[in-house]
Amino acid sequence: MDASDPIPASPAAPPYALHPARGALPGWREVGQGRPLLLLHGWSVNGAAFDGQRALALAGFRVIAPDHAGHGLSRQRAGATVAALACDVAALVGHLGLADVVVAGWSMGAMVAWALLRDQPQLPLAAVGSIDMTPRMVTDQGWPHGLHGHYEPAHARQMAERVRADWPRLAPSVASGLWAAGRRPEAAATQRIAHMAQQCDASALASLWEDMARQDFRDTLRAARLPLFHLYGESSRLYAPAVGMATRALHPAAGYSVVAGAGHSPHMEQAQAFNAALLALIRDAGQASMR
Questions:
Q1: What is the pLDDT of residues 235-261, one digit of tens each?
Q2: For residue 224, is it within any domain?
Q3: How confident is the model over 131-167, as pLDDT tens digits?
Q4: Is residue 210 a contact partner of residue 157, using CB atoms and an 8 Å limit?
C-alpha cells in the first residue's frame, strides 16, 4: 500500500494505476473497467483519499480519481480556481473518451463537480454527486448553512494568509477536521493524510481556499437537469446535518444519504458503508433519469 493512501481497501481490490500530469491533463489514478466513476478529491489531499473506493472496480466501475492542480500528481500544474480545476477534469474526460459518466466530488471536489454542471454542458455526464459539502461556504441571514455555521470572507482571507505563511504547521489541525466529532483516527491514517498534505503547493491551496469562498452554486443546483445526489457524514465537524437538508431542498428530487458514525470524510472513515450508499445513490439516479 502506498504511503499516501489514507486507509486500506479490500484486499481483493486491484491497485490504482498512476498517471502523471502532462500537457493539458492533470495527473490521475485509475482502476477497473466499465462505467466511468469520476471521484474528485477535496482541498489539501489528493486522489489517494479514495483508496477505499478501489473496491468499486469490483462492482463494474472504471474508477478514476484525478489530482487537482497544486495537489499530488498535479502539484506543479497552474490554475488555482474552482473553474480551472473543472476545465482540467473536462479535459481528462475528453482525453479518456468517457461517456455516461457519474461524478462524485468530496468537499472542494463537490464544487468542482458543480462547476462541471454549470460550465461544461457538453460533457457526457449521467449524474453529479456531492460528499459533505455546501454550495456556499460563506454564511449570511439567507444562508446559514456554510462552513462551521458561520463563515465570512474575512475568515477566508485569514485562512489563506495562514496557509501561505506556514502550511506545514497548519496542516495537522486541518486534517483533524476530517474525522467524526468525538473520534480520533488511527495514527497510520493521520500519517497518510499528513503525507498527502505535504504533496500540496501552499500557494495553490491558499488561492483555492479564497476562490471556494467566492463560490455560490445554489442556482446551479436549482436549475440542474441531470440527476443529483448528496451524501453526508452524520457527525461532520464542518457541516451540520441542516446543511445537507438545505442543500437537498434546492433540488428536492436529488438523492440523499447519510453515513452513520462518519465525519467530513465518510469515504475514508466508513469505506464499506460509504460505498454501499454511493452505489445505491447511483442506482437511484439512473432510475430517475429514465422517468
A1: 999 999 999 999 999 999 999 999 999
A2: yes
A3: 999 999 999 999 999 999 999 999 999 999 999 999 9
A4: yes
Nearest of 247, 246, 32, 255 to residue 127 by alpha carbon: 255
C-alpha cell at 1: 500500500
CATH code of 244's domain: 3.40.50.1820
133: cell is 459539502
Q: Would you state the cell numbers that stand for residue 10, as one nine-digit string?
A: 479490500
Supply the pTM of this predicted model. 0.95
Strands 61-66 and 35-40: parallel
77 domain residue, yes or no? yes
Q: For residue 200, what are the domain limits? A: 17-284
